[in-house]
């Protein structure tokens, strides 16, 4: 585990996620009944495939700190994957520090008192390209084709609520050792008027807490798709209720392999975002803001931010590593800086 300290981490047995048998055979893990705990990674937990809408499923990584008061949903960028898979691939090994499990731990440090949910894309192309097919239509390598169809928001809500249901079931059926740890966890909430037995029988995770959504690099395409859906989402009872939970959106050096639509520039869509009256943060590095190989990205980002500011949105922008040139090293480094 990276050198990150988290005061209290919920640990529980997790179901072995569905992968190819050759991959599963290579995972270094300690078996416990029907569950597998990744060796040396007690803080981040790989959940089995979680169902969303219309039979679609995504694997997720869960990390939780004490007295959590919000959910943080994170969409990773290209290359990011499970630690074992990144180490096995010569093309991704160099960036294995940014694996999904350690990123979940890193986010737990950035967002203390939060339930962290890292959402793995349903499809990977050539080992590195993230394809978020369950959220947004795209080509072979996952370059998005945005639409106003209500797909991403509804699927994300279903994923979160079903993941919470799964976690609550596992936390309530674990052994006595965990029950003691959980009791200490619940005591952090200072609900002194409840008896310990009542605490341990109550749901551990509340699905209806405020929601923060963050995307890094390619992961930002899911957030962009959700913006296109906002108008229709307000007409759907379930989606509209989910929007009420949204607290903040974080764009972290957003980008993809296409030659346009890296950032939303449609004023009507951005007005819908402004109307939510939530916090918006944009963090960039020269890899996206002034990369000569894709000059449109920086131009679109400026339109995105200028338009939101003109509409009165609550937006914060910061350019990191501004003195450096475009670099994948600092592109990933934004995850430690924002």
Describe this structure in words.
The two termini are 21 Å apart. Strand 4 and strand 5 form a beta hairpin. The chain is α/β, with parallel strands linked by helices. The strands form 5 sheets. An 8-stranded mixed beta sheet has the order 3-6-8-7-13-14-15-16, sandwiched between helices. A two-stranded antiparallel sheet has the order 1-2. 37% of the residues lie in helices and 20% in strands.
Helix content: 25-40%
Largest pleated sheet: 8 strands, mixed
Tell me the β content: 15-25%
Number of helices: 12
Radius of gyration: 20 Å
Strand order of the largest sheet: 3-6-8-7-13-14-15-16
Number of strands: 16
| CATH architecture heading | 3-Layer(aba) Sandwich
What number of domains?
Answer: 1
Might you state the CATH topology name?
Answer: Rossmann fold
CATH superfamily grouping: Alpha/Beta hydrolase fold, catalytic domain
Looking at how many chains there are and whether they match, the oligomeric state comes to single chain
Give the arrangement of secondary structure elements.
Layout: H1 21-26, E1 29-32, E2 35-38, E3 45-46, E4 50-51, E5 57-58, E6 60-64, E7 70-75, H2 83-88, H3 100-110, E8 114-119, E9 123-125, E10 129-131, E11 137-138, E12 144-145, H4 152-172, H5 176-187, H6 196-201, E13 211-216, H7 220-233, H8 237-245, E14 246-252, H9 267-275, E15 279-284, H10 286-289, H11 295-311, E16 314-319, H12 328-337
Parallel strand pairs: 7-8, 7-13, 13-14, 14-15, 15-16
Antiparallel strand pairs: 1-2, 3-6, 4-5, 6-8, 9-10, 11-12
Outline:
With about 350 residues, this protein is an alpha/beta fold. The chain has one domain: Rossmann fold (3-Layer(aba) Sandwich). Helices cover about 35% and strands about 20% of the residues.
């Amino acid at each position: 585990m990276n050198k990150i300290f988290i005061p209290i981490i919920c640990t529980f047995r997790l179901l072995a996620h569905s992968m190819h048998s050759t991959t599963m055979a290579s995972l270094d893990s300690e078996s416990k009944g029907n569950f597998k705990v990744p060796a040396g990674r007690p803080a981040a937990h790989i959940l089995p495939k979680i169902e969303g809408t219309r039979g679609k499923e995504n694997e997720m990584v869960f990390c939780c700190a004490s007295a959590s008061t919000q959910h943080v949903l994170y969409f990773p960028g290209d290359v990011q994957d499970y630690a074992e898979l990144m180490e096995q691939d010569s093309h991704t090994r160099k960036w294995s520090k940014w694996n999904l499990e350690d990123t979940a731990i890193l986010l737990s440090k950035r967002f203390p008192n939060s339930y962290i949910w890292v959402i793995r894309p349903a499809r990977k192309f050539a080992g590195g390209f993230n394809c978020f097919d369950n959220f947004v239509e795209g080509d072979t390598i996952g370059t998005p084709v945005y639409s106003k169809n209500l797909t991403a928001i509804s699927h994300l809500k279903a994923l979160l609520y079903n993941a919470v249901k799964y976690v609550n079931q596992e936390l309530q059926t674990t052994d006595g050792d965990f029950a003691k740890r959980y009791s200490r966890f619940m005591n952090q909430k200072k609900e002194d008027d409840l008896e310990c037995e009542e605490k341990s029988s109550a749901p551990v995770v509340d699905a209806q807490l405020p929601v923060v959504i963050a995307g890094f690099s390619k992961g930002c395409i899911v957030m962009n798709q959700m913006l296109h859906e906002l108008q229709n989402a307000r007409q759907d009872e379930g989606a509209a209720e989910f929007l009420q939970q949204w607290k903040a959106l974080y764009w972290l050096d957003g980008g993809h392999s296409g030659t346009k639509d890296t950032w939303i520039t449609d004023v009507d869509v951005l007005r819908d975002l402004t109307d939510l009256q939530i916090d918006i943060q944009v963090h960039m590095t020269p890899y996206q803001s002034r990369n000569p190989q894709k000059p449109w990205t920086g131009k679109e980002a400026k339109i995105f931010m200028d338009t939101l500011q003109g509409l009165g949105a609550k937006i914060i922008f910061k350019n990191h590593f501004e003195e450096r040139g475009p670099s994948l090293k600092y592109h990933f480094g934004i995850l430690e800086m924002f």
